[in-house]
Amino acid sequence: MINIIGLGYIGLPTALMIAKYGVKVVGTDYNIELITTLNEGKVTFEEKGLKELFQEAIANGIEFTTEYQKTHTYIIAVPTPYLKESKKLDSKYVVSAVNSILDICEKGAAIIIESTISPGTIDKYVRLVIEERGFVIGEDVHLLHAPERIIPGNMIFELENNSRTIGADNPEIAEKIKGLYSHFCKAEIVITDIRSAEMSKVVENTYRDINIAFANELAKICRTDKMNVYEIIRIANKHPRVDILQPGPGVGGHCISVDPWFLVGDYPDLTNLILTARKINDSMPRHVLGRIRDIMRKHDIKDISKVGIYGLTYKENVDDTRESPTLQLLERMDEHLAFGVKIFDPFVKKRIVDHQFMNFEDFLNEIEILVIMVGHDHIKYNMNLIKGKIILDTKNICTFDDAYKL
Ligand code: SAJ
Cα separation of 293 and 298, whole Å? Predict the structure, then answer.
């Protein structure tokens, strides 16, 4: 039996996927509400294919509980928040999960950490906790790091089709755990040491952050001289060795906007490029604010309550609002502009900001300027409804000739 600890954005789909392939799985989370919801047969967040996968896993006997289970294999997928001040990772949830596992696990159990951690976390914190408890790593328990790589919006497909990394001290144990992941992962599974597994995960997200920062810097350059950044990137990407990502209103989510800080925090003298990329991406909500001001001036609109922001999530077709560019924009707006801007997001069903509308048409009726911050399919399919508005399209999804761009 596999006990999965933490049933959030990564733990839940992983637990369901392993159960789908016939392995006995128990999912554990300290959040009673979440466990109750799952036990009532409901999934806890929106993700393509998740409901169907949930039904398959239920049919195969997956269980959800707040209790840790006595077994030989644990997967930890708990949150790893980062401390905004120090830019360092807070490993308290990982450490606490390891401690709870030690209270109950069978001798020789494998503890696999999937949560993203900053390079060195296992050496600095996790090993220490285990040794302090009198356990011998490699005999009493085995430690592994198998960082997840799935992208919200396409998680289920990527769980089965992305290559994975397994970092371990002991190649034999790594092979065993590779066998577990091979139940559902059809792509290559690379075995390495724990430190390389930690580092490669953070490097992947940092690479993407830098690539997006380059696109965002190009957007700013092109804006000053009225060039079309999308056309330029489209053409440049025809080159066989060029692959520039898309500019946007900022980089949000709990991964790309966070992980590069681990490197900056640990190697402050060696991370000029990484830090600059972070700063460029963090500057984008302010750039959008500047564009809103330009457009208001041009159309002689002085009342901010005539501006409507479409999208509160950190990207399209997900319901996750963590570090979202819109929330960053609103934070910056408070400094400069009066309250009153209107907000709508079809994926956010709870009211989390002022002046948030629950109905798209009511929202549109109140505004003159529409700022598209997220390219949900919902708005792509409702272009007819936004015709006639003054549009600032930060995601380049709107086809009207008169839409303003980034
Ligand atoms: N974004 C752009 N331009 C782009 C692509 C993305 O501005 O061309 C923005 C998005 O709008 C969003 C942010 O970047 O605000 C991050 O979105 P994303 O889709 O790039 O990535 P995440 O954060 O959803 O997922 C990433 C993925 N990492 C990589 O692609 C290297 C995913 O594979 C990881 O599993 C995930 O981080 C994670 O959990 O670490």
Answer: 9
